[in-house]
Amino acid sequence: MKKKLIVSGDSCSDLNFRTSVHPHLDTSYKKWPEHLAEHLGMELVCLAKGGHGNQYIYHSLLDEIIKTPKDEIGLVAAGWSQAMRKDWQINDTWWNTRVEQDGNLYGWVNKTLRHYISFQILCEKFDLPYFHFQMGDLFESYFEGLIPTEDKVKAGEKWKLEYDGHKNDDTKIIEKVLEYNNIIDNFIGWPGINDKYKELGGFNMLQIVTGESRKEQQRRGLVVSKLDDHPNEAGHKAMADFIIKELDEKLY
Fold first, then answer.
1. Residue 221 in contact with residue 163, Cβ under 8 Å?
2. Residues 6+ positions from 161 with CB-CB distance below 8 Å
3. 170-202 pLDDT, tens per residue?
4. Are the beta carbons of 27 and 17 closer than 8 angstroms?
5. Are 9 and 48 a contacting pair, CB within 8 Å?
6. Cα–Cα dist 198/196, whole Å
7. What element of type H or E holds 7?
8. Which residues, in sequence order, are CB contacts of 250 under 8 Å at separation 6+?
9. pLDDT at site 167
10. C-beta of residue 18 within 8 angstroms of C-beta of residue 12
11. Which ranges of the chain does DSSP label H, i.e. alpha helix?
């Protein structure tokens, strides 16, 4: 019997991803979790859903791990999303919104950090191999204003949600993130912060694989289009190859 690879994340890990900008585009190509499962010879259980945040990611993994016989689990992976997203549950259905209405950015990042460490504790309690990483920006884009969603870009909308806190809050947030330096394990690219904070030495997955800027993404040819920066077929393969190399060289 094959061991199971259990994965959760957002749209960049969602096997059913569809682009709202190009609704007729065939996006049924293999996503990075499928490439990884094939490489490892494992059965894939992919829980990722577009638009969802870190509360969903953690709790979907928690639920799956609890109900699965532990000797059937070969590896668990979390591709964390943006800290400002909000998830909630009505009965057995998860819902989400792009930006949490309560709290502030520091609090949302702090909550995500608790999800990171809780994920580790969960896997270590059951002696399960695991790894995790920050898929895209954790909080950084919120300071400049969130760009419109892809369908709004296509419609020509220019709005952006300005951050209404103090600009020095990023220093406070970074200090909180770095408090976890000695307790975070098996995290690819820790501390998962983008190129704006090069001195920290970390990266998020999209930055390192598909490119930091739209110009770089277009040059590498690893995203859907200039209007949609989700990884395309080649982007998912490149992401899987990068993860496999990290697993082989640094984690296991």
1. no
2. 99, 142, 145, 146
3. 889 999 999 999 999 999 999 999 878 889 999
4. yes
5. yes
6. 6
7. strand 4-8
8. 188
9. 60
10. no
11. 32-40, 54-67, 105-125, 141-144, 150-154, 169-178, 205-209, 214-220, 233-246
Q: Is 104 exposed, middle or buried (0-12, 13-18, 19+ CB in 10 A)?
A: middle
Q: How far apart are CA 202 and CA 4, in angstroms?
A: 29
Tokens at residue 122, please? 């969960």
Half-sphere exposure of 145 (CA within 13 A, CB side): 7
Residue 193, CA distances (Å) to 15, 38, 47, 78, 82 in order: 25, 29, 24, 16, 11
- What pTM was computed for the model? 0.92
Fill in the amino acid letter for 216.
E
Query: What is the band of 236 on the pLDDT scale with cuts at 50, 70, 90?
Result: very high
List of residues 6+ apart from 72 with CB closer than 8 A: 1, 3, 4
